[in-house]
Amino acid sequence: MEIEIILSLLFFAFFAGAIDAAVGGGGLIQIPAIMNAMPQLSPATVFGTNKLSSICGTTSAAYSFVRKVKLRWKLLAVIASCAFVSSFAGAACVSMIPKEVLRPFVLVMLIVIAIYTFMKKQFGQVHVRQELTPKILLLAAVGSLLIGFYDGIFGPGTGSFFIFFFIRYLQADFLHASALSKVANLTTNLAALSFFAPTGHVLFGLGLMMAVANVAGSIVGVRAALKYGSGFIRILFLILVSILICRLAYQTFFP
Question: ∠ CA 221-91-8 to the nearest 5 degrees?
């Protein structure tokens, strides 16, 4: 590979790590970058290499959030275990449901989320510490199972769905919801990577180089999120969801 291509991929990996650490959606940046740099790669190899890079950044972000933001370990365990199992199941079923069927549904859901978040100015601005009742843990389990399965079978907007769910149903603010989503995303990425790696769909040399840049970006993203708080994350969240909507709308109407 030419040095210019490697440097460009490292740049995009850094930027993807920074955005992903705060609100998710790093794949929106990193996957097109790999596809454009190496159009000869199969989609599975692109996704596998992206997962290797992004899982390192997600691990770094999750670790930083867990150290700085007070989270409930029992809640984390429920979210992580359910997200992993369902993402693994989703990856196993990936050939059963055409993406053309899922894309319009996801597009509508993202539009609803964007409008709801924009109209509710106080949405995600206050964190309510709840008792971990069986009902709360059940809600967390159901949400993680559904979104994790979606991530395994399709993927775009997973971080946004996790954040919205944790705010709406667990009454977290954007900062706590971002922290929880990093743990959930870490486990869904791990489940997906466990499919791609054994089948030879990961470029380990390139993926590990991008992983270093991705981790560096995630450190910057976490620090910005912790410094500027939920208001800053809310703005980034709305920007990311808007980009997702435009991307999915283009793919839906101009396949």
Answer: 40
